[in-house]
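Appendix C reproduces, verbatim, an entry submitted by the partner laboratory led by Prof. M.T., so that reviewers can inspect both the input and the predicted structure.
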Amino acid sequence: MTTTSTDIYQQLSDPFPVEMERSVNKSGRALTYLPIAEVINKMNKVIGVGNWSSEVIDVRRDAIDSDWVIAHVRVTVTLHNSHINERISATYDGVGGQQIKRKKTGDIVDLGDEFKGAVSDALKKALQQIGLGLYLARTEDAMYADEAYEQPVVQEKQPAKTGGVTPALWETFSGHLSKMDKGEKDALSEWWGMTYPGEKKPTQSSATDAQVENCIAECVRIQLNGEYVNK
């Protein structure tokens, strides 16, 4: 069975089981986070061992506030686009930090742990760009899809429309759009005009499943800053 970019995104963005999540109190607030081992395990299962890697570009104590360790991590992912039967390679970056913990005497508890924590945070921030663990960081407003690509939604069940897009597929497409900035959306619009010249932007009632699947694949390529490469 062929795995599409839609399948991959769905698997990455699905919430983790609650028993895998952890909580920590910061400034009086209970924050939920994911252990780095669970994040790496999910990437290995979904993307596949050997199809992704991470590189520590920089990790150091902050020049302004030396009580913080700052890390810059770059992740490389290779995806297979089933629509064009080619592989897409992409890199994307994440920056994270960890505050240094000290004993009552002022001595640092374990600087190595703080460096590892900063790198783990940066890795997770990078992977949020393709949906992994993003549900823990998104605001309620960010859950809504981009209105420029979607007709107003009537909050009641409607009869199925012949030729319309499968609701679950449209929801996945809408999820991609909600994470794209203006430049990325402009790139998607340009691609749509070249791929489907003369056709209006896709809506759930006017587009086909095949068109929306192609849109999702292009969203992934744009979000990962990927390029088409020959096999």
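Residues 145-229 form one domain. Additional entries are available on request from the coordinating office.
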